Amino acid sequence: MARILVVDDELSMREFLEILLRKGDHEVLTAASLPAALAVAGGGDLDLVVTDLRLGDATGLDLLREVKRRSPATEVVIITAFATAENAVQAMKAGAYDYVLKPFKVDEIQLVVDKALEHRALVAENRVLRHRLGRFPEEREILGSAPAIEEVRALVERVARARTTVLVTGESGTGKEVVARAIHARAGAAQPFVAINCGAIPEGLIESELFGHEKGSFTGATSAKAGLFEVAGAGTLFLDEVGELSPAMQVKLLRALQERVVRRVGGSADVPVAARIIAATNRDLGAEVGAGRFREDLFYRLNVIQIRLPPLRERSEDLPIFVERLLEKVAGDQGRRRPVLAPETEQLLLAWRWPGNVRELANVLERAVTLTDGDVIEPGVLPEAMRGPTQAPPTTLAELPEGGMDLQAHLDAIERRILEQALQRAGGVKTEAARALSLTFRSLRYRLDKFGIG
What we know:
Blueprint: E1 3-7, H1 11-22, E2 27-31, H2 34-41, E3 48-52, E4 54-55, E5 58-59, H3 60-70, E6 75-80, H4 85-93, E7 98-101, H5 106-139, H6 147-160, E8 166-169, H7 176-186, E9 193-197, H8 203-211, E10 212-213, E11 225-226, H9 228-231, E12 236-240, H10 247-259, E13 261-263, E14 270-272, E15 276-281, H11 285-290, H12 296-302, E16 305-308, H13 319-333, E17 340-341, H14 343-351, H15 357-371, E18 376-377, H16 407-425, H17 430-436, H18 441-451
Parallel strand pairs: 1-2, 1-3, 3-6, 6-7, 8-15, 8-16, 9-12, 12-15, 17-18
Antiparallel strand pairs: 4-5, 10-11, 13-14
């Protein structure tokens, strides 16, 4: 079922088209003027607009241009009894799907509507497919020209063809998986790239995820399952946040790396594995070894080649290219034209230290594009913390400003500061930060991802 807007200043034509289109089980809205049509189209969730060319003092071309500006994916069909070649050319140039002359037959207008909706569905499907197919090339592209990134890029090229284990280090949000995918891609591997976040899987399940299990080995194991070591085949197994593994799992991972075999949970036979291992962590594993939280022998197994990713604040010259790419991606995902930054907004982005790195930048820009109605991103849509100090927020209704306040933004700023302080006090150890805030580990990770901080 499609959502269709019919616009015509003649009541009889609106009613005719409404009845006709409702027979196709479509949701049909109507409007008699340009202002009324724009009010309906404001939500940007229309599949099709069918409009007369003449709308009182306005024209269907005015509506066409405004609809396409707000929602490029919405199809528009123009109908008119006063056809000229010039109007037809203008309509098609402005993005109209078709141009129908009155009087028309029922079958004719029905066919045009069906074709327009089919075209919209195909465009939407192609956008999804392009996103899926283009996702990995984007994710394996190491952006930037800062000296530290040039070193990373050169090291990726050198290690790609070897089967050497690689440890990628860096703060959360710096793009460690991007580097892992780049290594895998440059190796020319036709085999899978398999990733697992070691900190996101409960300890009781991660062994089964990595090594697999046999049928009946535990409650719910209704069939045998291959682990990710097996699934990766001769490809790449990416162990993200490897520093979060428990001591018991560290021992089992060490055995798999040393002997190149795994044993499924509940199984008795060793299964040979051939996957190349790339691990990543936002912790200082050397310090973790010294503190007794990470096995020294496993550290040396993983740390054959180390690639350190610098935080975004150490490569500020690369910020503009990330902003450009991310704005283009977010706008494309939302089906709208890419907005530009106001000069003041750009200055605020350049001045921010980005504790959450590229992930935080992506979150901020997605928020900014979503909250921006026009083509220019103003400072007001940035998070409150980025806009600099403001006067103390009200604590009673009597202190509430006459114009009101953004309560959610104020609460978000408070929550963000508390999360950052808890992480700092815990020395970056998320489990300890979660315990200090009486949160589950999963709840803490959700909140950190929400604000793009590590």
